[in-house]
C-alpha cells in the first residue's frame, strides 16, 4: 500500500511537460515488431507495469528485446510471423488486460500450446468477448468459468491455448473494444482467407495503423476492416506519441485551476482517442491544439497525428456526452467526472457501461469517491429493450477534501489526485502505487509541480 495525502494547491499551475509514450501504442509496437522480420526501434516507449508485461511476454516467446529506460526506447529483434518459440512455463502478464487479450489472438494460431496467467486482479476481467470470435476462427482456448449455471457464463483467466490452423471470419463487434478487434486482427495474420470485422462504434485504431506501417495486407473503410495473412516487415523506427490518456489529468487540472497555463508536448491526437479534448472544448475550456511533427522516419508512415496542447484556466460548463463518443475517451471518463463536478450546470455522460469492466468498476469508484468530496454525481439507468446506464453530474462551486480510495485502479487514483489538488482541505488516498500500471512518472511530476501539497511514500 502506498497512501497519499493531497492538499489544495493555490499558486497558478504553470508547466511545460514531455510525457511518456502512449500505453496502447507501446503495447502494439512490441506486439507487431515481435511478429515482423528485422529490428524495430520503438522510441518514446512507455516504461510502465503493463507495457513491460508485454515486453516480458514476448521475451518468454523467444524475442530479443533490449530496453533503455533512460532513453525511453526498446529495440525489438524478431524473426517474422513464425519466429516465436514455445514458452517454458506459463506466460505471466501481471495485471495487463491488453497484454492478455491481444496475446490470445497471437497464440491461437501458433504451432505450440501456451498458458496465459495473470495477477489476482486480472482473474476477474472478462475474456469471453475475445474467446467468442477467436473460437469462431478455430482457436482452442480453455478458460476459468465461474458461473457454470448461466446460459452465457463469463470466462476468466488463466487461459490455456492450444495453437491451431485458423480460418478467416466475418465478425460484427457487439461491443466497441480495440482489444477485441486487435485480438481478431492478430489471429487473422495466421488465418486462411480474408477476415472481415465490422464495428458499430469506432474504437481506437492503433493496431490498424501500425499493421499497415509494417506492410500487413489490411484495408479499412469506415467501420469495416479486412485483413489477410501477411508477412510483416519492420520499418526500422516507430516513434510513439506521448499518451493523451496521461495528458488528460494535466489538461483537466489546468482547465480548472485558477491562472494555470500548461503546455503538453507531442501528444497523440488520433481521432479515435481525442474525445476528451473535444468535450473540454465544448465545455468552454481554453485549449489550443497545435499540430506538430516528430523528427525522423517512421512517424509519417505510422500515421499517428501528434500535437502540442496548451490549456489555460477558464470556467467550464456542463455538457451532454453521447454513447457514440465514449470509445474516443473511455479511459478519460474518470477525470472528466472530476471536471464535470466543478463545471457550471449539468453534465450527462451516456453509454458508460464499459466502465464496469476496467481495472475496477469505475462507475462505482468515481461516484463513491466524488460523493465523499461533496460532488453531486449520480449513476442512473433507463430501462427499455436494452438498459442504458448513464451518469448525471451537477457542478458544485467547490469540492472538499475527504478520505477516498483508488480501488487499486490507476486512473481512479490519478483522478483523485487531481480532485485533491482542486479541493478545499486535505484528501487522503489509500493507495497510489497502482499508478505504476500506466504512468510511473505521474507522482514524481505532480510532486515536482505541486511541492509539499503532495505527500506519498512507499511502504
Ligand atoms: C485499450 C483499449 C481500451 C482501453 C484500454 C486499452 C487498448 O479497452 O480502455 O485501456 O490498448 O486496446 P477496450 O478495448 O476493452 O475498450
Automatic annotation (TrEMBL):
Residue span, Enolpyruvate transferase domain: 14-443
Any one cellular-component term (Gene Ontology): cytoplasm
CDD domains linked: EPSP_synthase
Subcellular location: Cytoplasm
Pfam families: EPSP_synthase
Residues of the active site: 331
Positions that bind 3-phosphoshikimate: 23-24, 28, 177, 179, 331, 358
Main location: cytoplasm
Binding-site positions, phosphoenolpyruvate: 23, 97, 125, 179, 362, 411, 437
Keywords assigned by UniProt, alphabetized: Amino-acid biosynthesis, Aromatic amino acid biosynthesis, Cytoplasm, Transferase
GO BP terms in the entry: amino acid biosynthetic process; aromatic amino acid family biosynthetic process; chorismate biosynthetic process
Role: Catalyzes the transfer of the enolpyruvyl moiety of phosphoenolpyruvate (PEP) to the 5-hydroxyl of shikimate-3-phosphate (S3P) to produce enolpyruvyl shikimate-3-phosphate and inorganic phosphate.
Full protein name: 3-phosphoshikimate 1-carboxyvinyltransferase
Gene that encodes it: aroA
Amino acid at each position: 500500500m502506498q497512501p497519499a495525502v493531497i492538499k489544495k494547491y493555490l499558486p497558478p499551475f504553470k508547466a511545460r511537460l514531455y510525457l511518456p509514450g502512449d500505453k496502447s501504442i507501446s503495447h502494439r509496437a512490441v506486439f507487431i515488431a515481435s511478429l515482423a522480420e528485422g529490428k524495430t526501434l520503438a522510441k518514446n516507449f512507455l516504461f510502465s507495469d503493463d507495457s513491460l508485461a508485454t515486453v516480458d511476454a514476448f521475451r518468454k516467446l523467444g524475442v530479443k528485446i533490449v530496453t533503455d529506460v533512460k532513453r525511453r526506447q526498446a529495440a525489438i529483434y524478431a524473426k517474422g510471423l513464425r519466429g516465436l518459440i514455445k514458452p517454458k512455463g506459463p506466460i505471466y502478464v501481471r495485471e495487463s488486460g491488453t497484454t492478455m487479450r491481444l496475446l490470445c489472438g497471437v497464440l491461437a494460431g501458433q504451432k505450440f500450446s501456451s498458458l496465459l496467467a495473470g495477477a489476482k486482479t486480472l482473474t476477474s476481467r472478462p475474456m469471453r468477448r475475445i474467446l467468442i470470435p477467436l473460437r469462431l476462427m478455430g482457436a482452442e482456448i480453455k478458460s476459468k468459468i465461474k458461473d457454470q449455471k448461466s446460459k452465457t457464463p463469463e470466462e476468466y483467466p488463466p487461459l490455456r491455448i492450444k495453437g491451431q490452423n485458423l480460418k478467416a471470419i466475418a465478425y460484427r463487434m457487439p461491443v466497441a473494444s480495440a482489444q477485441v478487434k486487435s485480438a481478431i486482427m492478430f489471429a487473422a495474420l495466421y488465418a486462411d482467407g480474408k477476415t472481415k470485422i465490422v464495428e458499430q462504434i469506432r474504437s481506437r485504431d492503433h493496431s490498424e495503423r501500425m499493421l499497415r506501417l509494417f506492410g500487413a495486407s489490411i484495408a479499412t473503410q469506415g467501420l469495416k476492416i479486412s485483413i489477410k495473412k501477411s508477412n510483416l516487415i519492420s520499418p526500422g523506427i516507430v516513434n510513439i506519441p506521448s499518451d493523451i490518456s496521461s495528458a488528460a489529468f494535466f489538461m483537466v487540472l489546468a482547465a480548472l485551476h485558477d491562472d494555470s497555463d500548461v503546455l503538453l508536448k507531442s501528444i497523440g491526437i488520433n481521432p479515435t482517442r481525442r474525445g476528451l479534448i473535444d468535450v473540454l472544448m465544448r465545455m468552454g475550456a481554453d485549449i489550443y491544439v497545435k499540430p506538430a511533427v516528430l523528427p525522423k522516419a517512421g512517424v509519417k508512415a505510422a500515421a499517428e497525428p501528434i500535437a502540442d496542447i496548451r490549456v489555460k484556466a477558464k470556467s467550464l460548463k456542463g455538457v451532454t456526452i453521447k454513447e457514440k463518443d465514449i470509445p474516443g475517451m473511455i479511459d478519460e471518463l474518470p477525470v472528466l467526472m472530476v471536471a464535470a463536478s466543478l463545471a457550471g450546470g449539468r453534465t450527462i455522460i451516456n453509454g458508460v457501461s464499459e466502465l464496469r469492466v476496467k481495472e475496477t468498476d469505475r462507475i462505482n469508484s468515481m461516484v463513491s469517491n466524488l460523493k465523499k468530496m461533496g460532488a453531486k454525481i449520480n449513476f442512473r439507468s433507463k430501462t427499455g429493450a436494452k438498459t442504458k446506464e448513464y451518469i448525471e453530474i451537477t457542478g458544485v462551486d467547490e469540492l472538499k477534501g475527504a478520505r477516498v480510495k483508488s480501488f487499486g485502479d490507476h486512473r481512479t487514483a490519478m483522478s483523485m489526485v487531481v480532485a485533491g489538488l482542486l479541493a478545499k482541505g486535505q484528501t487522503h488516498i489509500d493507495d497510489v502505487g497502482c499508478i505504476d500500471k500506466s504512468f510511473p512518472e505521474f507522482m514524481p511530476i505532480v510532486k515536482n509541480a505541486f511541492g509539499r501539497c503532495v505527500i506519498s511514500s512507499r511502504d
